[in-house]
Request: fold
Amino acid sequence: MDKSMPHSPIRLLIVDDHNLFRQGLIRILGDYAQFQIVGQAANGQDAVALAGQLQPDVVLMDVNMPVLSGPEAVRQMQARFPGLPVVMLTVSERDEDLFDAIRAGAQGYLLKNVGATELIDALQRVHEGEAILAPSMARRLLAEFRTLAETAPKEPAPIQLEALSERELEVLRLVAQGLSNKAIADSLNLSEHTVKTHLANILEKLHLRSRAHAAAYAVQAGLVREVQIKD
Reply:
C-alpha cells in the first residue's frame, strides 16, 4: 500500500463503543498519510456532536451502540450536515440493520472482517463519492432494490422526475450505473464540485437521503435497467 501523502489528507471521525477495537482502527488508519484522525467517539450521540465541531470528511461508525445507534446518528448527521459520507463498520449481517443504515443515509456498509487494505480503499472511494458495500450485503441490497422496482407503479413519481433538469437526469443515470463523482465529472466534462451540487439538488428534489436511494429511484423510474453498486 502506498503511504505517500495526498494533496490533502482525508479527515476521519472514528465511532465505536468497543474501546480496544476503536483504538486499533486509529492505530491502523493513522499509519497512513492519506488519513488524518480528527476525533473519536464511543456512541452515536457524541458522534453527532463531534461531527459538527470537527467537520470530518468521512465518518466510520459502528451500527449497534449505546445512547444513540449508528443509523439514528446517521439520520441526525444527514439532517444537520447534508452529504457527510458515513461508512458503517459492523459485525451485523442483519438485513434490517443494512436497510436501516442505507435509508438513514449511510454511503457504505462494511463488515468488521474486512482487511485493512480493503478498508483503506473503501474510505478513499467513499470520499470520492462512491457508495461502498460488503459484497454479501451488496447482493442483499440489490435484491431489495429489484423487488422495489418490480412492485413499483409503472410510472413512478412523474412530477418529481419532471422537477429534474436534463443535466440532473444525466447525473442520476450515471450515479445508478455506479460511477464515482470524478468519473461522472469526466464523462460530462464537469468539475467534481458541480457534480456534487447536482447530486445534492437531486436528493433534495426527489426527497431522498443518500446516493444509494438515488440509484434505487433511477431503477424504479425506469432511467436505467439495473442499479450498480461497487463492492
Notes: The domain at 10-127 is CATH 3.40.50.2300 (Rossmann fold).
